[in-house]
Structures are given as structure tokens and as C-alpha cells.
Input
Amino acid sequence: MSSSTAKITTTSVRKIMIVEESFDPLKTQADYQRESMSGKTDYGATANFVGTMRDFNEGDDVLSMTLEHYPAMTSKQLNEIVDQACSKWPIQNTLIVHRVGEIFPAESIVLVSVWSAHRNAAFDGCRYIMEALKHQAPFWKKEALIAGDTRWVAENTKGE
Amino acid sequence: MTIKVLYFASLREEIGRANDQFQFSEEQLLSLDVVQLWQHATGKTSFPEQLLVAINQEYKDQKALINDGDEVAFFPPVTGG
Output
């Protein structure tokens, strides 16, 4: 089946995980692929985006970060974002993993994985989901600076 | 007629609590919108430009009307990912 005739569906397979512990993004991705796509041979492209915590922001050294969310709305919004992506590209499967709680530099904050028959849908779908998550999913970051004070991140930048 | 109001992140810290529950009469709820609920809940007269609102976990604008049993959340711009 070519990408132009592949069925676009808003009920595609997906898994959304909000986790409180540090996670290994590529192991999580591989485990989920094994669990959800075993026996499948029609996917030819997988795009993964991993967001990692930096130790600097706005010119300051950051010690740690605390991520808060609105649980009931988070899963609803992320499901809607996946539905939107699935209505635009022939996506076969999606995995979103997002950390909450206290997080330290070099730990993964977010993983978005998208499986499709061809790379365009995988790349474009993954980027779309990540950008929409950044601007629609109800998560908030509070930074603890090396200098000793704390501050809320005011807003996410557009597609940088 | 009960309305639950939630506050998140910097707004929760500024207000000093995570949620409120308010009782309104049927008549009051006929025309209660988001801005009026914000003023009632926080005592603030202005509605911050960047403030986001969700009713029953769906984004809404400040003109949206409130219904009995709604869960209304106020929060600053989101910063996940």
C-alpha cells in the first residue's frame, strides 16, 4: 500500500504514559514496539523525538526542575493531538511518554514515537505531535536554579 | 448548582490554593461566563491576557458560559515537553 492510498484514521493505535520516574526513552520505545506491533510487517518508518533536560535556561544554571500537570486534561489533550495527527497523515502507531515530578539535567522529559509506512508521515506526524504538545498539553515547569531561587518557566518558544 | 474551580502552577501559588467550590443559584448560572467566574473566584477585576481556561478539560475562551457541575480550570501558558 502506498502512502497516498494508506487509510488515514483517527482511531489509530497509541499509548500515552505520564511517568513519575526517570525512563530510558529508547528502551521504552523498543518495549512498546515489541508489545504493540508484534507480527506486523507493514511499517517502514519510525520517527522518535526525545526531549532532554538542559542544565541552563535563559542564561542561568539550572539544578533541577519540577513538572506539574492537570491529569484529567493531559490525557484528553494528548489523545486529541494524536487524533489530529492521524487525520493529517497515515500513522499506524504513536507512543507519547512524558515525565512529571522532580527531574534533573540529562534526564528525558518527553518521548514521541510515530510509526508509519513511509518516512514523511513519521517525520511530519512526530513533529506535529511534539509542537502541539508544547503549546496545548497542560504541563508546567518550575526551575530550581544553582543560584538558589526557583522560577516558573513563562512560556514555550515556537518551534525552536 | 455547584461549580468546581482549579488553579495550576504559578497561578495556584499566587492565589494560595489549588481549588475552590462555589454554589450558584439557577438564575445566576443563566448568564455566568468565564470572566465573571474568574472575578468571583479570585476577587481580581482584570482578566490576564495570557490566562488560559478549560471547562471540563477542554480549552474555552473567556466568553464561554458556565453550566451546573462544570469543572473550570485557570492556568498560565503551558510549558511541557
User: Anything to note?
Assistant: The first helix of chain A runs from residue 25 to 37. Chain A touches chain B through 28 residues (CB under 8 Å).
